[in-house]
TrEMBL record:
Domain NACHT: from-to ranges: 131-285
InterPro entries given in the database record: NACHT_NTPase (IPR007111), P-loop_NTPase (IPR027417)
Comp. bias (Basic and acidic residues): 1-10
Species assigned in the record: Actinophytocola xanthii
Region Disordered, annotated ranges: 1-23
Keyword Hydrolase: no
Protein known as: NACHT domain-containing protein
Length: 783
């Protein structure tokens, strides 16, 4: 008899011995008689990399929040003194629960009051590791959360959890468990952790959460949708041993506690207002040059006349750190502005009037051009219009996160469908019609191929729109398998393609200037449409099922280009692509033969021999093209490192590079192979089935190239951005032509902030103010 013990990892990440098994050993075989405690089976290979991923996440979080703290000018010139005190007892749990004392014990209150420089020590003094930070809007809760994360990272030891700040407003606790939502937020900002650790297993981010290596810092609990605060508390209380930090406005958190219960085992603190002494120590140091005494008269009146209407209202407003930041930006950083106007009771009779003025004057102040004689890139009125549009988008989306890949959703679904139907239709029409004419001087007259291209463009555009609608309806009804949906959509789309294609050609043939197709009969046109209609329909159905609703669009990729050490993976992608390509080419070839026979060609001996010869050579070449594309597009992709934390501009640039690389791979791999195939046919390396076989070959190659390009577009977030955000929205005056430049500029001016890969407005009150006082729409956006 022997006893086996296993040292596991508790939820907080500290080593504990909690697994025990007993049994009998017979040689190499262990017969287990009993098991006591939790059994954790860690798959060899990835479990040993938990420490590596944890350290990478810590590096990424530290980099992001150091950059963000510097951008928010927290220490410029000095940090505002943030203090707090224990919140009302009814908002916190029993001290015995906070202290993790056994049943029957009475816990004494913890010494929670302190200043920002003591925050890390205060948090570590809480045995439960659960802390709630309360305060009014603009009190500095987010900045304090960032400071806590950085202090914990600086004092962090090996194996300890990494604080990760996430915006709670995007969480729906009624439908999404905290674990899954938290993993999604981490992978958004740290794409290197989005890789599954094993087939069917969790992502690296999920594995870190499971191992207790993540300390969630839920910023903005109050920004949850109305009615979700109590559900969020229930979710959090369902895991009472899991450490967490929450920031919230006091009123919203208090209402949730009254409806459910306090956050189990959590200590709760509430931020203090700034004092007049704090303002005396801070505001004069924000001016420069001959404006060093700018705030002295204002602060003197606030000290000597504290009960006068003007000073009293201003003092009430400037107890809030956000309002102090706005006042500093508008008056200390902007030449020609005098803060003494804030004391004018005829303009600002109440504290609310002062507050509204600071919010309204902020955008014009930061967009005031300090270069005389030069036209600003974005005038203040135009910038405010764009910002108001972005704020409206966030309100409609129910989030505070401004993600560049979600701006496409501001375009109505119907418009998106029509735009992509037009775009894809033109591309297919180019492939079927004009491209073969341009690539070969031996083909039929230009009018012939222009009309074929026009018919194919119309048919393809209709099929794209129909694909979106049919796929959505197929998924909206009963639950169906992907194969069923693909077959249904593909068959319907193929029939529509043939019908529209034939209809357009028949109409064009009856133009008053004379028939364009004197030698092409209606049955021949029908079989031509059928020849290309079924493959295009099947491909459209497959893409729609695999990619999903194409008007919703994908997320940005989290991969990078890597050659070193990828030979085996590249080879495997090539083999998979080669096999898939061989199957596709063979299927299409037999389909073409079936259409040829149905059209009256007949399967005579010579025809069969030529077909077999073409199938062997063409199948090998076509499969080669597919294999090369697969190797170049997917084989060279490697996940980012765990320490690679992305920001908005980096995420957009990386997705653009990946998309362009894939499109170039398609064109550079398929076209040369198609050219070799065509050249061999022209040199009579084998016989053609009929006249015009070269035309059909070029058309088929171009359809494959354009079809693959469309497929790349369908899985590219940047492609949606290019068409909708860089094209349609500026064209209609909603946003400027250089959208990313505008967002980057707004971030640099302090209007926006960044949380990983997404932007946010500097504060929710600024976003709400832009919505409350919208600007009239602009007629144009030529910027």
């Amino acid at each position: 008899m022997c006893t086996v013990r296993d040292d596991g990892v508790s939820e907080r990440g500290s080593p504990t011995t909690h697994n025990e098994a007993s049994g009998v050993v017979h040689g190499p075989l262990l017969q287990v008689g009993s098991i006591v405690g939790d059994v954790v089976l860690n798959a060899p290979g990835w479990s040993s990399r938990i420490d590596e991923w944890t350290e990478g996440l810590a590096q990424g979080v530290r980099k992001l929040w150091r950059q963000e703290e510097a951008h928010r000018r927290v220490h410029d010139p000095v940090a505002l003194p943030v203090r707090w005190h224990p919140a009302a007892p009814e908002l916190a749990d029993h001290w015995a629960n906070v202290r993790r004392l056994p049943a029957g014990a009475t816990g004494e209150p913890l010494a929670l009051a302190g200043r920002v420089e003591h925050l890390e020590q205060v948090y570590r003094s809480i045995p439960s590791g659960r802390l709630v930070i309360l305060g009014p809007a603009g009190a500095g809760k987010t900045v304090l959360a960032g400071r806590l994360a950085l202090d914990l990272l600086d004092a962090r030891g090996p194996g300890q959890p990494v604080p990760v700040i996430v915006s709670a407003g995007s969480w729906n606790p009624e439908t999404t468990p905290l674990h899954g939502w938290l993993a999604e937020q981490i992978t958004r900002d740290h794409p290197g952790l989005a890789v599954p650790v094993a087939r069917g297993g969790p992502t690296r981010a999920g594995a870190l959460i499971d191992a207790g290596r993540v300390l969630p810092v839920l910023d903005g609990f109050d920004e949850l949708d109305v009615g979700l605060h109590q559900a969020a508390l229930r979710r959090l209380n369902a895991s009472p041993d899991a450490p967490a930090v929450i920031t919230s406005r006091t009123a919203e958190y208090a209402a949730a506690v009254r409806g459910v219960d306090a956050l189990t085992a959590a200590a709760v603190v509430e931020l203090d207002d700034l004092s007049l002494d704090d303002l005396h120590d801070y505001l004069p140091r924000t001016t420069a040059g001959d404006r060093t005494g700018l705030w002295d008269p204002v602060l003197e009146r606030m000290r000597t006349e504290p009960h006068a209407p003007g000073p009293a209202a201003l003092c009430q407003v400037l107890t809030n750190p956000l309002m102090v930041f706005l006042a500093r930006t508008i008056y200390s950083d902007t030449p020609g502005r005098d803060p003494a106007e804030l004391l004018a009771t005829d303009r600002f009779p109440t504290a609310a009037a002062v507050r509204d003025h600071l919010l309204a004057a902020f955008v014009p102040a930061v967009y005031q051009d300090d270069r005389p004689g030069r036209t600003p890139r974005w005038p203040a009125d135009r910038a405010r219009h764009y910002l108001a549009y972005l704020a409206g988008h966030l309100r409609e989306a129910g989030t505070r996160d401004l993600a560049w890949w979600q701006l496409r959703d501001t375009v109505p679904r119907r418009v998106r469908t029509r735009l992509f139907a037009l775009l894809d239709g033109l591309l297919i029409g180019f492939a079927v019609g004009l491209a073969p004419r341009l690539m070969s001087g031996t083909m039929s007259p230009l009018s012939y191929w222009l009309s074929f291209g026009l018919a194919a463009a119309a048919a393809s555009g209709v099929t794209v729109a129909l694909t979106v609608r049919l796929t959505r309806r197929s998924r909206g009804g009963r639950r169906r398998g992907k194969a069923t949906v693909a077959l249904t959509v593909g068959f319907a789309v193929a029939l529509v393609f043939v019908f529209v294609f034939l209809l357009i050609l028949v109409l064009l043939s009856q133009l008053p200037h004379g028939p364009w197709y004197p030698s092409v009969s209606i049955p021949a046109l029908f079989f031509y449409g059928l020849k290309y209609g079924l493959p295009i329909g099947a491909a459209a159905g497959l893409v729609a099922v695999l990619v999903g609703d194409r008007t919703t669009g994908p997320r940005p990729t989290g991969t990078r280009l890597q050659l070193r050490g990828r030979a085996r993976f590249i080879a495997s992608r090539f083999v998979l692509g080669y096999v898939a390509g061989l199957v596709i080419v063979v299927a299409l070839w037999f389909w073409s033969l079936a259409v040829y026979d149905a059209a009256g060609g007949g399967f005579t001996g010579p025809v069969v021999a030529v077909a077999v010869q073409q199938l062997l050579v063409g199948g090998l070449l076509g499969a080669l093209a597919f294999g090369l594309v697969a190797a170049a597009t997917f084989g060279l992709e490697a996940p980012l490192n765990a320490a690679d934390a992305v920001r908005a501009a980096d995420s957009l640039a990386r997705d653009r590079r990946n998309t362009v690389r894939k499109v170039l791979a398609v064109w550079l791999m398929v076209l040369p192979v198609g050219g070799i195939w065509y050249w061999m046919g022209e040199r009579e390396f084998w016989l053609s089935l009929s006249y015009g076989e070269g035309d059909d070959l070029i058309t088929a190659v171009m359809v494959v190239v354009v079809g693959m390009t469309t497929g790349v577009r369908a899985i590219s977030a940047w492609a949606y951005w290019l068409v909708l955000v860089r094209g349609w929205l500026p064209l209609t005056g909603r946003l400027p032509w250089r959208v990313q430049a505008f967002l980057t500029d707004a971030y640099q001016r302090g209007v926006l902030r960044q949380t990983g890969a997404v932007y946010q407005f500097r504060h929710a009150r600024l976003q709400d103010h832009l919505l409350a006082d919208p600007t009239p729409p602009l007629r144009s956006a030529v910027v």
